[in-house]
Amino acid sequence: MVAVVREALAAQPEGVRGRVRVVEGDGRDTGVHFLPGSFDVVLCHGVLMHIEEPDPLLAGLARMLAPGGLLSLLVRNGDTPALRPALTGDWAGTLAALDTPAHTPRIPAAPEHGESPSRPGLEVWADRLGSLTATLAGIGAPLHTWYGVRVFTDLTAGGTALPGTPQDMVALLAAEDRAGRTDPYRRVAALLHLCGVRG
User: Fold this and answer.
1) Quick one: how many helices (H) and strands (E) in the chain?
2) What is the pLDDT of residues 1-40, one digit of tens each?
3) Which residues pair with 73 in a beta bridge?
4) pTM of the full predicted structure?
5) Most distant pair of Cα atoms in the chain: their distance
6) Do 127 and 146 touch, CB atoms closer than 8 A?
7) Could you say which of 3.40.190.10, 3.40.50.920, 3.40.50.150, 3.30.360.10 is the CATH number of the domain covering 34-197?
8) Is 154 within 8 Å of 84 (Cβ atoms)?
9) How far apart are CA 138 and CA 32, in angstroms?
């Protein structure tokens, strides 16, 4: 991924390249690279699903936020683990997911239903909204708002093509956007987008 970023960055004008710094390191060690309160916005999208214990990373990210700064998280939804296998007719997987204790803050997703898009076959973690809400409050960046992501597109049968016409794609995106902001639909989304704000 670092190589991909560097390659994409090299193709940008100098005005862009000069404003970007690629840093390799452990996200829990943000203090090595950045002063507290260095950023107005910190994005952590598609990362927590690869980390078994996310609290130290989240604390480090929150520490980098300036007062009023936004911490944006995109995570797999751990509140609906049985939904995806059920929609594909995997009843054994559905039953196994239903047996996951409700109090478990993070759950390993079944590889066939929770694969990393970039690394197929890799088991990933899913987070529960309630647990992340508590974590964000505990690190000084309480939840401000949250959205569901991929509400409908993940409910279609595997391999179903996206709409072919631009008008249909616009309608699909509008439906996803609206459902992602509306209960109860946002609660069954494949992903959750949480926004915490530093006090």
Assistant:
1) 9, 6
2) 899 999 999 999 999 999 999 998 888 888 889 999 999 9
3) 44, 194
4) 0.84
5) 54
6) no
7) 3.40.50.150
8) yes
9) 22
